[in-house]
């Protein structure tokens, strides 16, 4: 029976580095999705020594792209959306993965119990948890791994 | 209330303009990690809290620029460089009064505190005030975006950028070091400064955000301005309507436009969101009547 993180984690994962430009990260999201055969919404970011520096998710990138005053746009119907998206994309050019990633990431160890992982994911609103052992990245547990493991009794 | 003259902001209170999402971080967070929040949320400052969640200070891009200039390590806790204490107003504080406090204390934001529970419920910054102002102006029947009332519109006196802008433009040279740029910015209390190339032609702008990113990227403060400036320079004409200039700034997330004079190759002033907030007006003087109608 699968009990701890090491039993359910994915060991096939792609990573980004903090010095990479955000536009390059976007390309790698697409590549990783293709290679892993699943939609990749977030990737681990590694530092120069290969340790975990943070996580960059699509949410982080979209948050950065979102115009700050969008709440006052409600009644305005003659905005040049194309121009605005272009302008926002232009801004990402000087920004690196390390600038907008979430640096303070919750991690688990290979021996963390899967129900503990479930608890962390629910309480902290995260969908992926890096599995780290003595500073070395071993894998990543996605919420879908956990979901199908815990609920596989309903599958047949 | 100190307002002597009725203007567009008369009677409007903080809770109508404040931003309810308040970014706050514990004081032990590193400067480096706090930069990620400032960049991602496009804010200029955040609230610093202690272990019990009590606000103890404010960290602004100006504080971070100071740390960069002083050569401090970027992994220092932000409690070491924050400004204290945070300045507050209440949800029912009149914007007029809030603006006055911001001007007197030379700060760009106030935190809005619930008087009963003493908890922070919002943040009020210049761009938020301008956003509210623009909404009223935009919906006004005298607005030039509206198609009706052509005759009134033609005879109405409209405020142009040149009436509100800060006159005179300071600049640095492309080969000046980032340290020199920071000295200029803090001396004049600017958020950004123009960069001139050969023949004094403007070639770019360096803002505090650019400097914060340079710090984050580990760039040597001796590097030339050209290494981090953004170009082209965002600009407008002095004769442009206030309303149009404000619209461009709030839609494109920029804080200032450099204003060129009659001949378009030199700049005569800077128009910023703070100037717009202080001007308390849209493009014409019809604001008060339109607001009364909208509020009713």
Automatic annotation (TrEMBL), chain A:
The residues the entry assigns to the signal sequence are none
Q: Which residues form the CBS domain?
A: 9-72, 101-156
Cross-referenced InterPro entries: CBS_dom, CBS_dom_sf, Diverse_CBS-Domain
A Pfam family for this UniProt protein? CBS
Q: Does the keyword ATP-binding apply?
A: no
Q: Does the keyword Transmembrane helix apply?
A: no
Keywords, ordered alphabetically: CBS domain
Give the transmembrane region(s). Answer: none
Report the SMART domains cross-referenced here: CBS
Protein's name according to its UniProt entry:
CBS domain-containing protein
Provenance organism: Desulfocicer vacuolatum DSM 3385
TrEMBL record, chain B:
- Which Gene3D superfamilies does the annotation name? CBS-domain
Q: Which UniProt keywords apply?
A: CBS domain
The record's Pfam families line, in alphabetical order, gives: CBS
SUPFAM superfamilies noted in UniProt: CBS-domain pair (SSF54631)
Keyword Ribosomal protein appears in the UniProt entry: no
InterPro entries linked: CBS_dom, CBS_dom_sf, Diverse_CBS-Domain
Instruction: State whether keyword Aminoacyl-tRNA synthetase applies.
Output: no
Query: Can you give the residue ranges of the CBS domain?
Result: 18-74, 82-140, 165-221, 229-287
- The protein in question is named CBS domain-containing protein
Instruction: Look up and give the organism this protein is from.
Output: Desulfocicer vacuolatum DSM 3385
Starting at the broadest rank, the lineage of the source organism is: Bacteria, Pseudomonadati, Thermodesulfobacteriota, Desulfobacteria, Desulfobacterales
């Amino acid at each position: 029976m699968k009990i701890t993180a090491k039993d359910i984690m994915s060991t096939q994962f792609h990573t980004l580095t903090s010095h990479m430009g955000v536009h390059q990260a976007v390309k790698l999201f697409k590549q990783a999705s293709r290679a892993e055969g699943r939609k990749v919404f977030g990737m681990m970011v590694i530092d120069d020594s290969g340790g975990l520096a943070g996580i960059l998710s699509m949410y982080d990138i979209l948050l950065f792209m979102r115009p700050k005053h969008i709440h006052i746009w409600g009644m305005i119907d003659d905005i040049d959306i194309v121009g605005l998206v272009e302008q926002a994309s232009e801004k990402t050019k000087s920004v690196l993965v390390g600038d907008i990633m979430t640096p303070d990431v919750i991690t688990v160890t290979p021996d963390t119990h899967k129900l503990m992982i479930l608890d962390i994911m629910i309480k902290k609103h995260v969908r992926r948890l890096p599995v780290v052992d003595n500073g070395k990245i071993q894998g990543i547990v996605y919420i879908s791994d956990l979901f199908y493991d815990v609920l596989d009794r309903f599958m047949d | 209330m100190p307002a002597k003259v009725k203007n567009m902001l008369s009677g409007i209170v903080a809770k109508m303009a404040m931003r309810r999402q308040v970014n706050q971080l514990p004081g032990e967070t590193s400067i480096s990690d706090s930069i990620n929040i400032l960049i991602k949320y496009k804010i200029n400052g955040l609230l610093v809290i202690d272990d019990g969640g009590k606000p103890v200070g404010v960290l602004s891009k100006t504080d971070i620029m100071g740390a960069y200039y002083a050569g401090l390590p970027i992994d220092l806790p932000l409690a070491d460089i924050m400004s204290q204490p945070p300045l507050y107003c209440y949800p029912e504080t009149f914007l007029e009064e809030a603006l006055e406090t911001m001007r007197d204390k030379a700060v760009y934001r106030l935190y809005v505190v619930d008087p009963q529970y003493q908890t922070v419920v919002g943040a009020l910054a210049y761009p938020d005030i301008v956003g509210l102002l623009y909404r009223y102006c935009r919906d006004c029947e005298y607005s030039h975006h509206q198609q009706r009332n052509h005759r009134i519109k033609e005879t109405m006196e409209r405020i142009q950028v040149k009436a509100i802008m800060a006159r005179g433009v300071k600049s640095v040279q492309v080969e000046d070091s980032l340290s020199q740029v920071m000295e200029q910015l803090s001396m004049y209390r600017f958020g950004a400064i123009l960069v001139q190339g050969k023949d004094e032609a403007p070639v770019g702008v360096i803002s505090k955000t650019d400097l914060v990113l340079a710090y984050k990227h580990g760039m040597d403060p001796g590097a030339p301005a050209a290494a981090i400036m953004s170009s082209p320079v965002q600009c407008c004409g002095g004769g442009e309507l206030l309303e149009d200039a404000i619209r461009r700034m709030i839609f494109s997330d920029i804080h200032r436009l450099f204003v060129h004079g009659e001949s378009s190759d030199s700049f005569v002033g800077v128009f910023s969101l703070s100037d717009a907030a202080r001007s308390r007006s849209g493009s014409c003087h019809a604001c008060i009547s339109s607001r009364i109608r909208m509020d009713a």
